[in-house]
Amino acid sequence: MLTTATTSASTSSDPNGAPSGNYRGYKQLMSRFDGLAKYNPANMDDPIIINVGGKRFETYEETLARFPDTLLGSASRRAKFYNTKRQEYFFDRHRSAFDAILYYYQSGGTIIRPEHVPPHVFINEVVFYDLPEEAVQIVQQEAGIAEEPEEKPMPNNYYMGVVWNTLEYPNSSKLAKFLAIFSVIVITLSLIIFCIETLPDFKTKQTPKPPNATADWKPPPNPYEIVWFRLNTFVIIWFSSEYFLRLITSPQKFKFIIGALNIIDLMSILPYYVQLGLDADDSSISVLRVVRVVRVFRVFKLSRHSRGLQILGNTLRASLNELIMLMFFLAIGVMIFASCVYYAEGGPDSDFQSIPHAFWWAVVTMTTVGYGDVSPISLPGKIVGALCAISGVLTIALPVPVIVSNFENFYNKELNRRKEEELKKAEEAREKEAQKKAGSTNSKQSSELDITDGTKPPKSPKGVLVCGMNNGEENSSDKTAHTTVV
């Protein structure tokens, strides 16, 4: 309970027509407890104390004013964090990260993330203090999680742009997300059909040709073939519709056609139409088998909707030089040890009839598979085999750390992307909540201070009791207004 403040009433009133004594007393009290909004350093050389999570930092107004568009650089924006009792600014934020934030002002724009602060935590602090967007990009690039801005060309036609955006970018709308989920379900269904139709239970036993059969006799059809055909037809209708709609609405059709994922989409569609044009006779059986095998490429359609497969693809693309080097080392080792084992074991009665025949043994030995179908018998051959296995382990192990490092880089990039999205959503939710509270508070205060005419005394704000005033006494010069703050 605060003590009572007494103010003398005068004949003047506020510009809005409110009684002067009551209005002036209220304004004096509000200015007393709202001093943080009017706080300003006397000059640019005055020291400023910033308390971050209990750790105090001291700097100058001139230092922070180098970036006036940021939270700390703007005196009006940081004023709400000012503690009048302790004469300091208080931020309940990450203490270790603030060293780098303050150094950004001191150095004139150099941002360096502390090694012990995780990238997503530091980025969140940079966003909170509203440092320029360039600072966020620098932190992301140094941490290896920066993503190049994706170019999203759009068709000139509005309706074609809506279709293209819906089919190409699953996060663009709720309909796009629904179609992406439906596409994943259809792809999964096609892969299940591809595997189940090879089970023996769904195949008919071969019926021998009866002796009195005519020349055009054919075995009875498999009843399950109709089911598989109808299901595959449904799958192909969706794949074809999706592919051709995206092709028609694509703003860059040549780039669309040569795209890796689009080539996979086309290869998953073509086997169905090729199979329709072939008869199941002896001359086309081998072609049908190849065509059916190509359907397995549908599994790669999942990479359009799976971040995990995209990480794997990016890792292989980034590690292409290391993979080529691995294959080159393996080819040299196969050539050397195949030649050595041939001269150590070779002969007409040996499994190593020639150096090309020994390539298979060298490959399975260097990769430490060791099927055992071909193996050296003599002592020199066994020595060559042991050296081949040891060399294979060393050869394969050399590029693996680089590949693993690339995978870890892309995986951490994905994790930080998810955490950054979560933090951004949480920050937006907090801002919306704060705006709602601020809006309700402002509307309440404005309704309390709104004076329509001079006949009624203004309503007291919450916690403030106005007493000692009667109707007709507002403008009396010999009366006093007593304001009590509860």
From TrEMBL:
Localization annotation: Membrane
A Pfam family of this chain: BTB_2
GO BP field: action potential; protein homooligomerization
Transmembrane residue ranges: 178-199, 226-244, 256-274, 323-343, 355-371, 383-404
Comp. bias (Basic and acidic residues): 422-436, 476-486
Primary localisation category: membrane
GO terms, molecular function: delayed rectifier potassium channel activity
Record keywords: Ion channel, Ion transport, Membrane, Potassium, Potassium channel, Potassium transport, Transmembrane, Transmembrane helix, Transport, Voltage-gated channel
Region (Disordered): 1-22, 422-486
Compositional bias annotation for Polar residues: 439-449
Biased composition (Low complexity): 1-13
Keyword Disulfide bond attached: no
Bilayer disposition of the protein: Multi-pass membrane protein
GO annotation, cellular component aspect: voltage-gated potassium channel complex
Official protein name in the record: BTB domain-containing protein
Taxonomic source organism: Desmophyllum pertusum
